[in-house]
Amino acid sequence: MTPSASLLLLLLLGLSQALPLQEEGIEEEEEEEEEEEVDEEDTVDITTRILTSNNATDEILLEGDLLAPKTRNAMKCWSQSCLWKKGSGGLVTIPFTTSSQFTSWERQKITNAMNAFHSKTCLRFVPRRNQYDYISIENKGGCYSSLGKTGGRQVLSLNRRGCVYHGTIQHEINHALGFQHEQTRSDRDSYVRINWQNINPQNAYNFKRHATNNLNTPYDYTSIMHYGKTAFSIQRGKDSITPIPNPNVQIGQRKGMSRWDIVRINKLYRC
């Protein structure tokens, strides 16, 4: 083989080995970009996201994202009448519809959030056929839900511009299941301090304690139902909620249901 032919063969061999590596490198860069994009769009804490989105609604909301009761006198849902029913097979079936205003990607986000309930509890969200009681997931002016099953068509709002995130979806679904915010539970004063001086008096009602059934579970700073430290604060940098005794404990995460959130669902619905 002539020297020139040998050189050409070596060049071709080098190119054949280099191209797959180059493509792999491009794929890795694209994956990194996708991960960065996901992280970037999910940097807002859950409280800010919900309260900001709900500035656009005309609904009467309690605690930021709970529809004021129309069929019950108090913000309570521990009776059988406001819990979704368990079938003979041991599964709690919850019919739902999703507005056509959502894109296929947004519908998939909602489905993924629901699937977490399927894999860890006895709850099953199923497309509605003709059931009377069902959740209607709609693109309305904010992120909000009723507390527990209200009967008939029950609106769960997920505004497309600020609510279609995994943690936010699960937060509102948990309200529809009957769960209140963690920082309003009956024993909260042993675990957090409400800084009333940093809260507008007109918003103070949002921090009212409730006579909750805590299902013999501990206070959970990591609950998807816990608002962040600055919820309803009158000034940036002024915390409305301070964990005690350690004020540095993180509260108000947005990733998804905590272990105790799942335990409580299974306890309440006797899974």
UniProtKB/TrEMBL annotation:
Enzyme Commission numbers on file: 3.4.24.-
Alphabetical UniProt keywords: Cytoplasmic vesicle, Disulfide bond, Glycoprotein, Hydrolase, Metal-binding, Metalloprotease, Protease, Signal, Zinc, Zymogen
Pfam family for this entry, one: Astacin
Binding locations of Zn(2+): H171, H175, H181
GO cellular component: zymogen granule
Active site: E172
Cofactor note: Binds 1 zinc ion per subunit.
Record domain Peptidase M12A: where: 73-271
Cofactor: Zn(2+)
PANTHER family, per database record: DISCOIDIN, CUB, EGF, LAMININ , AND ZINC METALLOPROTEASE DOMAIN CONTAINING, HATCHING ENZYME 1.2-RELATED
Name of the protein described by the UniProt record: Metalloendopeptidase
